[in-house]
Structures are given as structure tokens and as C-alpha cells.
Amino acid sequence: MGLYRDEGVVLRTQKLGEADRIVTILTRETGRIRAVAKGVRRTSSKFGARLEPFMHVDLQLHTGRSLDIVTQVETLTPYAAVLGSDYARYTAGTAMLEAVERLTDAEREPAVQQYLLLLGALRSLASGEHDPGLILDAFLVRSLAVAGYAPSFDACTGCGLAGPHGAFAVAAGGSVCPDCRPAGSAAPAPATLALLGALLTGDWASADGSDGRARREGHGLVAAYLNWHLERGLRSLRLVERV
């Protein structure tokens, strides 16, 4: 394949040797890749700061035998500086990066929808237009839907009966009616399910008007649903600041 070009968001970095880093990037066309950035930990590096988590970059890479090699980097949007200066936005963003890496578990498989979702969520976080916790939960439910795990916050996942219903079963896929309700189902407040439905569909007017109780309960349901499908939780979710 030789040289190729793509744009992407840096998800994670790890040290390699004395001066290099392995950079995990979700790219628009290629999907999730891991590449070596040579010499970026030296103070003289021209593009070390451009390859930090959250950075939206344009890249030129050379195909390697096991890992590709970054040969050029240009900054498109410096999200790292904006998000790194605010704890709530930084922790919400970190959870997004970890989630999207887990939900794109196969390398070099195009994931354009996940990429566009992530880019939109980072843009929204950086602009401060909504509460960081709401942006995170909206991203998580939509990212799960794109990955094939769309939760239902209205119709019963067992029989399809129109809701809203008073129970939510993580293992069943979301809302359940009284006849389909399995043991151990949660019983969230109606406002909580309404909030989650708004986040899934992008109804920000309703989401922004929600209260703290609905947001906290909603985040708990989203976290439980995510953990069920990932089979282990996101470490960064524990650090997210909540209302």
C-alpha cells in the first residue's frame, strides 16, 4: 500500500522505546489504526503535540509490517487544549475515546459513522453548548446504536408494545412491558426514560431542560447498558463529573 493519507482523532498513546510513541487513531476512511510516531517524545519533535489524545489531525502514513509509520501530521482542530483545561469536559471526552476504541474492536475496518459521531461530540464538548454529562450519554447511546446495540427507551423490546413502560431491562435491550418484564429489571422514573430517548434522537431542547435526578439515573442506565455489551466497564467512566 505504501504511503496513504487520512484524517482522524487520536484516541490513545503509549510510549515505545526512548523517544517514540504508538498512537491509536480512529480515522475517517481506514478505521481504527495503530501507528508508530518516531521521535515525538523529544523536545525537538515537530509534531509531538499534534499527536495527543483528542487531537483532530490530517495524517500521512506509511504502511508497515505490523504497525504503520506516521510521516506527516497537520492539526485540523486542537481539541486537546480546549478539553484539557476543564475537568468535566476532559473526563467526559476521555470516556468517549475509550468507548469508541472498544466499540471499534477490529483494526482497519472503516467506521465512518462512529468517526463522525465522535467528531461531532468533541465539537459539542469544546463549544460548551450542552452539559458535558449529557453530551457523553448522548454519544454513548448513539455509538451503541451504530454498533448494532440500539437500546429502546419506549417500545417493549420483548413484544413491541408501544410505551412508555415502567421497567428497563439491560439484558433484554431496554424498556419492557409488564408481561415481558424479567426479574431484576430497573424501574426508572418516566422523566429518565424521556431524557434518554431525547439524547438518542438528538432532541436537545428536551435534554437541556431535564433535572439532575433524571440525568444521574439516566447515566446509571447508560453505563449499565454499555457495560453489558462491552462485558467490562470503562475505567474512565468512574472519573466523570456528575450533576
Describe this structure in words.
By secondary structure, this protein is an alpha+beta fold. The protein is built from seven helices and seven strands; from the N terminus they run E-E-E-E-E-H-H-H-H-E-E-H-H-H. The strands form two sheets. Strands 1-2-3-5-4 form a five-stranded mixed β-barrel. Strand 1 and strand 2 (20-27) form a beta hairpin. Helix 4 (132-146) packs parallel to helix 7 (212-230). The longest helix is centred in the last third of the chain and has 19 residues, at 212-230. The radius of gyration is 20 Å and the shape is elongated.
Parts with pLDDT < 50 across at least 5 consecutive residues: none
Q: What is the radius of gyration?
A: 20 Å
Largest sheet: 5 strands, mixed, barrel
Query: For the terminal residues, how far apart are their CA atoms?
Result: 49 Å
> What is the 3D shape?
elongated
The helix-and-strand class reads alpha+beta
Strand order of the largest sheet: 1-2-3-5-4
Task: Note the total helix count.
Answer: 7
> Helices and strands, in N-to-C order?
EEEEEHHHHEEHHH
Q: Estimate the helix proportion, in percent.
A: 25-40%
| Count of distinct strands | 7
Mean pLDDT: 93
What proportion of the residues form beta strands (DSSP E)?
15-25%
Gist of the model:
The protein has 243 residues and is α+β, with helices and mostly antiparallel strands.
